[in-house]
Amino acid sequence: MPSFSFQKKFANKVKRNTKPGTVRDKRKRPMKVGDMMHCFTGMRTKNCQKIVSRKNLAIVNIKILYKPNEDPELIDYPAIELNGVELTYMLAESFAVDDGFKSFIHFIQFFREQYGLPFNGDWYVWKESALKKYGITQ
Hints:
Blueprint: E1 3-6, H1 8-15, E2 21-25, E3 36-41, E4 49-55, E5 58-67, E6 77-82, E7 85-86, H2 89-98, H3 104-114, E8 119-125, H4 128-133
Helix pairs in contact: 2-3
C-alpha cells in the first residue's frame, strides 16, 4: 500500500485535487502505474490523518538542478527536467504553483533545503490534465 505523508500546507490542494501529483525521492519499493496512492498528514505520529486516495496515472522522472548558462559571465540558472526534457521558465513556474508553492523560486528553495540540488526523483501523477499540460506521454 504506497502511502505518502504531506505537510499540512499541501493537504487541502491534495484533497481538492488541485495538486496534480507529488514529487518524491526514489522509493526503495517502486510504485507502478495504476497503484493507489494513500495520502496522509502526520504519518508516524498520533496526529496521522488520511487525506484521500488517488490512482497513480504516471511515474515521471524529475530532475531539479542548476544548469550552466551559455554565457559564462552569467550565473547558473535553476531548471526542472521531466523525463529528460527541460521545462521552459513559464512551464517551470506553472509546475511549481500547481505543486503548491508560491513560485518557482520557492519550489527551488524548498528542494534545495530539503534534499539538496541536483535532485533526481519521481513525480507521481494522479491528474491526467497535468500529463497533457507538461507534454508527458506514457
